[in-house]
Amino acid sequence: MTPPRREDVADPAPGHLPVADHRQVRDAALRLIRQDTGAFVTMIVFNALAAAAGLVGPWLLGRIINTVRAGGGVDTVDRLALGILVGAVAQLLLARHARYLAHRFGERTLGRIREQFVDRALALPASVVERAGAGDLTARGTTDVVTAGQMLRDTGPDVFVAAVQALFILGAVFLLDPLLGVCGVVGLTGIWFATRWYLRRAHSAYLEQGTAHSALAEVLAATASGARTVEALRLRERRVADSEAEIGRCVAAHDRTLFLRSVLFPSIDISYAVPVVAVLLLGGILHDQGSVSLGTVVASALYLQQLSQPLDTILQQVEQLQSSGASFARVEGLAATPTGPTGATTPLLPHGGTPEDDRIEVNGVRFAYSGTADVLHGVDLSVHPGERLAIVGPSGAGKSTLSRLLAGIDAPVEGTVTVGGVPIADLPPDRLRRQVVLVTQEHHVFLGTLRDNLVIAAESATDVELKAALTAVGADWSDGLPAGLDTELGPGGHRLHGAQAQQLALARVVLADPHTLILDEATALLDPTTARHTERALAAVLRGRTVIAIAHRLQTAHDADRVAVMEDGRVTELGTHDDLVTADGAYAALWHSWHGEHRRTT
């Protein structure tokens, strides 16, 4: 698939995922149709046949009227009436089969949209997801994906088929009498004006409604996930106020789309009657003059009355198309999401984007979060392949920020952070995740079995390898699970407490086997003895790999090959544990303070 050009993408608001434009939505829909062209064409053919069968009834009814007026026999009327019945049955069967084909086509298409969305979402850099918020991504992946699928399964085909039926019906009226056909078309102009007024306002209104839903989902998700913090800090009233404000925006957005519909639909209902009345009046005059037969007038009026059904379908589905189109634009917006953490597309990388080795270099790095002062000030650091480096320092020194830059989540404002000569932040997500893995104290347990939670890191891993990874991180609790690796985790199954979830995450790291592992409080939920055992076990399992640990327990620094000390966003000391203790600087003060307290507590 050819990626969209950057200039074709509407620039999103800061921190928001982009929305595809009309051309991109159209191209995406055509692309999905081409993937199942045979089913789509067959569906259209059957619907066209159903539309043609629906024309039989009014035409034969007109024949019956003319036959009766001409004194025709009962046998002729019976044959024509039987023809009406056959046409109605044929229309019913053809329409039902066309609907069956449409649903099969639509379900396959919806499956492709879901798979494509998941692939794109997994390819997003972590920094992009963080800035956009989980609410927006969740709303796009659930409500918007379903609505977009409905457009291709139901709404789109229904509109297309109804348009064909409307053309067939108007064509039949023109064949009966061109003057009556012109009269009918002129009578439909009110529908055109009302629809044009609606379409000029609907797309932006439904996009605004989708954005309001995403913002509300983000607020509710953040409040639910941080419920304990909200209670502890007595933020309930503030969170309720924020939620009510977002609900107000959602209601206002819904009111706007409701107003548009309340104007459109009454205008349409009135406009349906206009062409029928006009044809009956003009037809009556022409019949009195002997220009047309009564059967022709009746058949034309019936056709125009019948026209209300496909037009009603089109106009009702046009409203749904606006909602579905806006959802599809939001879903397709992921394809236009910038891949770099700074909001730029991935540049042309040296060495073809492949690092020459695993050496990490940090040169003259400055970094600041949006709207804040610099957090890092000219950091220089070199990490050798296979080295165990501990980064220590007081809270707020910039350790976690540096770990995010080393993991490629963020890019420096100034300076470079490279692996093998390639900027880490510019690596494609799939290569980045093979190269560097950042593990924090925030871990997720997915719904499913213990095996499901492990194989996401290594799909081809055997049960022996899965159990070995659990053993390596000290997850002995897994041996006592009722169904072993097949034990269901999460609500309704076995619930893991914080330390167990942390060990599960570390086991996934062992299975992923990255070149560089960055641990930022990755063992913070474990007790000191278990944490030290786990860190040493990881070091043994990942021997030969680079391990960078943000050390909050100085025993981790003691076991490292080198220690980097950070203060006020700068690396102030760098060396081995023994050398830094001997130098009697900041690290020595930290060590003596921690070691003394540690001895007293033990």
Description:
The protein has 602 residues and is of the alpha/beta class. It has two domains: 20-222 and 254-336, ABC transporter type 1, transmembrane domain (ABC transporter transmembrane region fold, Up-down Bundle); 387-395 and 430-601, Rossmann fold, CATH 3.40.50. The chain has helices at residues 22-34, 37-54, 56-69, 74-123, 126-132, 134-176, 178-187, 189-225, 227-232, 236-288, 294-332, 399-406, 429-435, 450-455, 463-472, 498-512, 528-541, 554-559, 577-583, 586-601; strands at 360-367, 376-383, 388-392, 414-419, 422-423, 436-440, 448-449, 488-489, 516-520, 546-550, 562-567, 570-575. The strands form three sheets. It has a six-stranded mixed β-sheet, with helices on both faces. It has a four-stranded antiparallel β-sheet with strand order 2-1-4-5, with helices on one face. It is elongated and about 120 Å long.
Which tags fit this structure?
four-stranded antiparallel beta sheet; 63% helix; six-stranded mixed beta sheet; Rossmann fold; 12 strands; 20 helices; 2 domains; disordered N terminus; 602 residues; ABC transporter transmembrane region fold; alpha/beta
What is the distance, rounded to the nearest whole angstrom, between the alpha carbons of the first and last residues? Answer: 61 Å
- Which strand order does the major sheet show? 6-9-10-3-11-12
CATH topology of the largest domain: ABC transporter transmembrane region fold
Q: Which assembly state applies to the chains in this document?
A: single chain
Helix content: 55-70%
What do we call the CATH homologous superfamily of the largest domain? ABC transporter type 1, transmembrane domain
Poorly predicted runs of 5 or more residues: 1-14, 342-348
Coarse shape: elongated
User: Proportion of β residues?
Assistant: 5-15%
Q: For the record, what CATH class of the largest domain applies? A: Mainly Alpha
Number of alpha- plus pi-helical segments: 20
